[in-house]
Amino acid sequence: MYAIGALIATVVASAVPSAFAFSPSFAPLLRSSALATRTSLCSPSLASGAMGGTCFSSLAAPPLRKRSVVVLQMADDTFAACKVVSNEEAAKDLRLITVDVGSAISADYKVPGQYVKMRKDDQQEKPGFFAIASAPGATPSSFDFLIKRTDGSSWLCDTAAGGEVEVSTVQGPGYRYAEKFGSDIEEVIVLATGSGIAPLKAAIESKDLEGKRVRLYYGCRTPEACAFGDLVGKWEGECGAEVVQCFSQGGDLPEGARKGYVQAAVLEDGIDNPEKTGVLFCGVNDMVKEAKEALEKAGVKPESMLMNF
Which of 68, 111, 115, 287 could make a disulfide contact with 15, Cβ separation 3.0–4.6 Å? Predict the structure, then answer.
């Protein structure tokens, strides 16, 4: 047991990752009342970074198998050391990254559009916010993320399979359509640009919107910059969505795709009954602002247009 300031933690010494080494300089970041360590026990398959194993958490841990995950209660967030399962190119400047977050974190993911914070280690001053791209319950203990490479996310884009990252608990309200969309909403328009497709992919694949007409307008600059193009057939077939791909800079367009912007495409197609239409957004600010203004003028109620935060 280690006592640092107001922190009292019980740690299985052989299983503590070096990133969580305790030091006096770390103490101010910790909650004064926190018992900072929770041990998560994983099957060998998950411990090695493979998918398909089972994982559970316990405060009173039975004998360890392969490794434990140390969870620290921070000033505002709880982070766990988690393993990257895979890291693949999804499109130009986009990475599709799967992280084994464990069943405890996974169980708290209830609503598409929710997110987690991630950081490289406790030395990183500001964690990144990343929307979960997989639907709730899609896997027992892992999340998919679509990450755009920027100065702030390059560390994550460069983390190979088997590497460790620190992941917070699930946060945010997500798309509250269960609360906001009553039985009077018959159609849902989904507007996404770039990496903003991630939380909307989760919403569509959750099948929470079954029984309503769903139109997805997905915009990118070029086909090379478009992630999940191979999933369009699944979204249309298994999930029942109508998908319109829009490319602002043209290029060699897929069959049925359009040149232009998503906010223009949805207005071109029209809205049959605005008062019975709901909208989900995620993308660049200009798209969201212009689309909201145009849809409100068309008669869609502001309270029926939802963001994921």
Answer: 68
In this model, does residue 66 exceed pLDDT 50? no
pLDDT in tens, 94-113: 999 999 999 999 999 999 99
Residues in contact with 18: Cβ distance below 8 Å, sequence separation at least 6, in sequence order: none
Residue 177 contacts by C-beta under 8 Å, 6 or more apart in sequence? 185, 188, 203, 208, 209, 278, 280, 306
Residues with Cβ within 8 Å of 3's Cβ and at least 6 positions away in sequence, in order, are none
Strand partners, 32: none
Confidence class for position 223, pLDDT limits 50, 70, 90: very high
Number of Cβ atoms within 10 Å of the Cβ of 180: 14
pLDDT over 90 percentage in the chain: 71
d(CA 99, CA 84): 4
Per-residue pLDDT tens digits for 147-194: 999 999 999 999 999 999 999 999 999 999 999 998 899 999 999 999
Q: Output the CA–CA distances (angstroms, integers) from residue 266 to 109, 189, 191, 259, 297, in the order listed.
A: 30, 8, 9, 13, 13
Burial 138-165 (b: 16+ CB within 10 A, else e): bbebbbbbbbbeeeebeebbebeeeebb
User: In which element (H, E) is residue 79 found?
Assistant: strand 78-91
Q: Record the tokens describing residue 136, joined without a space.
A: 């709730």
C-beta of residue 102 within 8 angstroms of C-beta of residue 69: yes
3-state secondary structure of 98: strand
